[in-house]
């Protein structure tokens, strides 16, 4: 009969097995610490180089309600690319956004196309087609 495990002369005493378990627990604890350190190191705010224009850019400020500002801010915070913006940056983006009313069935954006506009859906819903 074929045995799946081959045993050699080893100490299978209770004390030896408990010592082996303790060693494995220590290894697991060390791996958890390393994983936690990795997560902390990779969850901090990422930095990037950004070029500011040489001239002052005049941005149009679009008036909106506090509810609209909150909706836009919440949407920006849910976006993995934008969630690390500070409150001043979020306010600047929200101030420049303007309402767009879209009729039912209209195509807002096509997947894969280059875009230069960001949409925040405030009222109703949209359908996604691929």
TrEMBL record:
<protein>
    <submittedName>
        <fullName>Cyclic nucleotide-binding domain-containing protein</fullName>
    </submittedName>
</protein>
<dbReference type="InterPro" id="IPR014710">
    <property type="entry name" value="RmlC-like_jellyroll"/>
</dbReference>
<feature type="domain" description="Cyclic nucleotide-binding">
    <location>
        <begin position="81"/>
        <end position="130"/>
    </location>
</feature>
<dbReference type="InterPro" id="IPR000595">
    <property type="entry name" value="cNMP-bd_dom"/>
</dbReference>
<feature type="coiled-coil region">
    <location>
        <begin position="14"/>
        <end position="41"/>
    </location>
</feature>
<dbReference type="InterPro" id="IPR018490">
    <property type="entry name" value="cNMP-bd_dom_sf"/>
</dbReference>
<keyword id="KW-0175">Coiled coil</keyword>
